[in-house]
Design brief:
This protein is of the alpha/beta class and 383 residues long. The protein has three domains: 111 residues, HprK N-terminal domain-like (Udp-n-acetylmuramoylalanyl-d-glutamate--2,6- Diaminopimelate Ligase, Chain: A, domain 1), CATH 3.40.1390; 162 residues, Reverse transcriptase/Diguanylate cyclase domain (Alpha-Beta Plaits), CATH 3.30.70; 85 residues, Arc Repressor Mutant, subunit A (Orthogonal Bundle), CATH 1.10.10.2840. It is built from 15 helices and 13 strands. The strands form three sheets. Strands 8, 9, 10, 11, 12 and 13 form a six-stranded mixed sheet that branches. Strand 5, helix 2 and strand 6 form a beta-alpha-beta unit. Helix 2 runs parallel beside helix 3. The longest helix has 31 residues. The protein is elongated and about 90 Å long. It starts with a strand and ends with a helix.
Length: 383
């Protein structure tokens, strides 16, 4: 998940006398770049995950400093470092409270620290971690696409993950995601990563096959559900214009089964977007686990329409609703009264329609086996 605020604080506490004084819940924010700021003009061009550093020259009042942190939150910065002692002697409580409320990590380093050395140090580490992340992403994609070729990915992931342990795949998707240009999609990716709290190096986040993929290793069910639910809550609050839908795959053991978790997460994500469900677990999809796992969409289309073709043709020709009537009939397990109430229709009319439907289908619909093929057709048509 990149070079994070946590990484930075661990190596900087003694080396640069850095203190994390507010926004502690953003400790897992990954850092994409470091920028010196003495005014807010450039912030509107942030892509996300930037770490801001300031001497306080342009923010020497509480009002100016509050404006700065508000802008950083708005444009999804990773955090803020203030070089205290010259222009800013003490951080106002209102500023610290705002950073804490918005999970923006706020750190201080004393005036004696040479910022140029610190920024150079961090920049090198960000570059090295970025290179490692690219290698990890390639290896995970290899594991998904060619699971049998373990030599092609297992050794590359071994230094970073417990390859024999538990893996969970979570897929984030949105309407029109694959139609976004690269810059727009990268901005969305950075925003989602900022919202991914409490996960650092036991996870990997990347864009693949028109979805954002999060792979977690040895993370408990309780923890990963809190992580995912937190992302959904933050996206609804901070970017309501882009509804995010999440599919969660089955947990698997060993990296060579990652492709199973991925395919199941993808199936859940597709159904979640179709049904407008914020979070959907593959294991909770019932019969739809099978249907959404079928990659032959032509076959599904044929199965959805072929068995109902006599009714579809009749409805089209006579402007009737036999297809809808059969759907209710199956839903209510053959109860004429229940169908009549659901369709606001006299029961004798329902009896007449069902009699005609049985003749058209040449099926009495008496047994579970007889009804199943038609129920499956309706499931497919709703996909």
């Amino acid at each position: 998940m990149g070079f994070t605020i946590e990484d930075m604080n661990l190596l900087s506490k003694e080396r640069y006398q850095m203190e994390l004084i507010a926004g502690h819940k953003g400790w897992s924010n990954s850092i994409n770049w470091i920028l010196m700021l003495e005014d807010t003009a450039i912030i509107q061009n942030f892509a996300g995950k930037e770490l801001a550093v300031t001497t306080g020259l342009g923010f020497d009042t509480e009002e100016k400093l509050l404006h700065l942190v508000r802008m950083l939150v708005k444009y999804h910065a990773a955090g803020l470092i203030i070089n205290t002692g010259e222009y800013i002697k003490e951080i106002p409580k209102a500023v610290m409270d705002y950073c804490t409320e918005n999970d923006l990590p706020l750190m201080t380093v004393p005036w004696e620290v040479l910022l140029v050395d610190m920024i150079k140090d961090f920049s090198i580490r960000i570059f090295l971690q970025g290179t490692a992340d690219e290698e990890i992403t390639r290896a995970f994609i290899h594991a998904i696409e060619e699971p049998a070729n373990q030599e092609g990915y297992r050794k590359d992931l071994l230094p970073y993950f417990d390859v024999d342990g538990e893996f969970q795949v979570v897929i984030f998707t949105a309407e029109g995601l694959d139609e976004m240009d690269t810059v727009e999609r990268r901005r969305l990716s950075y925003r989602l990563q900022i919202y991914l709290k409490n996960i650092t190096h036991n996870g990997s986040f990347f864009y693949y096959d028109s979805h954002f993929v999060l792979i977690m290793n040895d993370v408990s069910k309780k923890d990963y559900e809190e992580i995912v639910e937190g992302v959904i809550q933050r996206t609804k609050h901070k970017m309501p214009e882009i509804p995010i839908f999440v599919g969660i795959g089955s947990m698997v053991y060993d990296i060579d089964n990652l492709h199973v978790a991925y395919q199941r997460a993808k199936a859940a994500a597709i159904m979640a977007k179709k049904k407008k469900i914020s979070i959907l677990h593959f294991d909770d999809m019932g019969i739809h686990r099978l249907l959404y796992s079928v990659t032959d969409t032509a076959l599904l289309s044929e199965m959805g329409d072929m068995v109902l073709k006599p009714l579809l043709d009749y409805d089209e020709k006579h402007n009737s609703n036999y297809v809808e009537t059969l759907e209710w009939y199956l839903k209510y397990n053959g109860s004429i009264q229940a169908v009549a109430e659901a369709m606001f229709t006299h029961r004798n009319t329902v009896i007449y329609r069902i009699s005609n439907i049985k003749k058209m289908l040449q099926c009495e619909l008496d047994t579970t086996e007889e009804r199943l093929i038609y129920q499956m057709a309706y499931f497919i048509r709703s996909m």
